[in-house]
Amino acid sequence: MKQGKKALIVTRVSGFLPQFEMNNVRILQEMGYQVHYASNFHTIVYGKDNHRLEGTGIVCHPIDFGRSPFSPQVRRAYGQLRHLLEEEQFDLIHCHMPMSGVVARVAAQAERRRSGRQVPVLYTAHGLHFYTGAPWKNWIYYPVERYLARYTDRLILINQEDYQRASHFPVRGKVERIMGIGIDLEKYEKDGDLAGRGRSDLRERFGIGREQSILVSVGELTKRKNNRVMIEAMALLRDLPMTYLICGTGPLEEDLRQRVRQLGLEEQIRFAGYVTDVKEVLQQADCFVFPSLQEGLPVAVMEAMAAGLPVIATRIRGITDLILDSKGGYLLEDWQPGHYAEGIRRMFQEGRQGREKELQRRRMGEWNRKRLEQFARPVVEEKMRQIYASVTHPQQKEEEKQ
Length: 402
Prior knowledge:
The protein has 15 helices and 13 strands. It is an alpha/beta fold. A seven-stranded parallel sheet has the order 3-2-1-4-5-6-7, with helices on both faces. α1 (16-30) packs across α14 and α8 packs across α12 (337-348).
């Protein structure tokens, strides 16, 4: 006989949970759930291994999720998940990421029919594949997500565009919006403002001269993150005392390094690799740059805002939820390297004295910090507690709607 309440979190890659979902794990554990985790533990993303899951009390279940909807792994993962659901009899299922979200909801619905148990199923979309300006092929996911909404008790979105679009889906329960994963502002605030942050440490670590301004980006080195645009932009900024620090690893790292060598930018661009002390790096930089092609609600940008940095990015979904042009940085209309170079010159040069531009960057950083209060951890945690309670205690549904 099943003992105690069990909640299952499902993601395609195992690093996703320790990177983004530990707050939800803690909430569920405080609500009396034993938390289980189904994922592909052989596909390592967001870290080098799975050691961050150790000592968390999470029960792990390997599922052979693949990324492609046309992979034979889909059928195998579905069978494995069906067996797991039947065996463990979970009381709540919360899935994330596109492919694992599809497989988990279909498997949960099949188990619902088999057992007759009305187990609530939640799906958080961390950025729908279909969005304004997305390639036409991305829209093949639209009918899939719309159909699966009828198997979803809470469809949770993290940006305004996705929320508005999904609000028209035939959801079995309700469409919700949360403000991302919840940023811990306190850990940034206790370190003071941009002044006196031990800048020499970062400079010594990566061989950056004291006269150099530091641009930084954080994220996987993939096509979507579009780091090549900033590399090309740096070739147009050789006259400025500036270093671009790329934090992250990924499949395009060697291609990007080769492009840096081709352009002779080895002195202007540093590859930091996978960085575990992101907060300290951000707090010693001067500006955050983010030429990503597609986002849901980027954590990297929120962390930069929390660190008091101005941001230069393209005007896309998710970014516009966070940054207001000329208040918290500059939003560009496209990904042309020349336009990124112009934005950077505007941030650091544009005919003004250095001290005045530094004060302007600080004002932008302070605006970003204030803006981020609505995305802070306590705000997001309170919303998630309400969502979990509403699906596990039906009598609270009406109170939640008020």
